[in-house]
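Input chain follows. Return structure tokens only.
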Amino acid sequence: MPRKPKYTKEELIDTAVAIIREEGEESLSARNLVKRLGTAPATIFTHFNSMDALEEALTDKVREIYNVYVNRGLEKNPPFKGFAIEHVKFSLEEPNLYTFLFLKPKASGTLDDIMDREGHREVLVEEAMKVFGCDKETAEEVFANLVIYMFGLASMCSKGLCSFTEEELAKKFGLAAGGFLYAVKENLPWYSVIPGKDGKKIEDSPYLSDK
């Protein structure tokens, strides 16, 4: 019969989150958990059948922390840009939690998978439609490109490669979103923004195509 734990399920989850936050996911193990909790290894599995089950609960908990940032961003004006700013701020202030939630290697996946896993696609597409005055298809395209840009900045920040102030992020996302919207609305072929050596467009190049 498993030994009765000296801690609650919530205390176990909070301790696991603390380990990830302070040391990274690679330090999360049954041994490190019981060391912090001061109990026997078997008691962990009174609350969870496996480490995979614990990880699932941890993902939900870390997502709650992330959603605090998201909700704060959605309260800004415009909410679409506020969300992107707070997403990057989460990566700056909680780099190990960001890595745990968003940067786990996947065997396969698409941009659609990334947008769906982030969890706020529907509300953000609606916000993009309001902010840019565009249809849903255009808003989806603008959002998809903003996600690429946003995740790129956040990934670099989470690894300590760079850092930005909120003002700097506001300028970057304002410029990026405006550029994406212009390109989508004008239906520009991708090569039309690449200058040739003489400064002219190079759509006649045999090596380039918008297909």
